Amino acid sequence: MNVNFKDGTWLNQPAGWLAEDASLTMTTDAKTDFWRETHYNFTRDSGHFLGFPATDDFTARIRIQGEFRTLYDQAGLMVRIDEKRWVKTGVEFTDGELFLSTVITDGKSDWSVSQPFKELEDFHIRVTLAGGAMRIQASRDGKFWPLLRLAPFPVAASYAVGPTACTPERSGLAVHFSEFSIGPAITTDLHDLS
C-alpha cells in the first residue's frame, strides 16, 4: 500500500521540508544523528524521521535520492519502537565513499556497512519484519534486491516506519524520498532476490 507522505508524524522535524502525496524532500539541520553509546560513548536522538504506524509482519520500501558528500551524510528508512530500540538503514558517506549502512539498536547501537553496488545517489531500501526477524535489502532498480542484513529485532505491539536523514558533521543535505509503501511481509525465500 502506497503511503501518503502528508500523513506522517515527525520526530525532530527539519526546518526545511516539503511533503506531497507521493514524495518528500527534506533538508537536514546541523549536527543531527541517531546513535546509542557503542564505541563513541554518546547518545544522539536528534536525526530527522517521518514515522508511519505499522504492526508486526510488514514490508516497507522506499526510494532515496541525494548527493551525499560529507562524512556521515546519511538517509534511508527507519523502523522505530522507542529511543532505545530502532533501526536505520540506507546510504552513508564514510571513508571517502558511499556505502549501504545499517545501524541496529537494542539498548546500544551496532553498525555495519557494505557495497553490493556503488550507485548510491538513487536507490531503494526494503525492510521486512516478521516474528522478531528483520530482513534488510537494497536495490538499484527496485527489481533485484541483494541482502544487506538479517538480524533479530524486538517484537512490539506497534512500530513507526519511514524516511530518515541525518548529517552529524554539517547541515543542508537535501534528500528526496518517493515510492514509499508499507504492506504485508513478503514471504519469498531468503535467497530469492526478486
Automatic annotation (TrEMBL):
Gene3D superfamilies: 2.60.120.200. Pfam families: DUF1349 (PF07081). Signal peptide: none annotated. Coiled coil: none annotated. It comes from the Bacteria. InterPro entries: ConA-like_dom_sf, DUF1349, UCP022704. This is DUF1349 domain-containing protein.
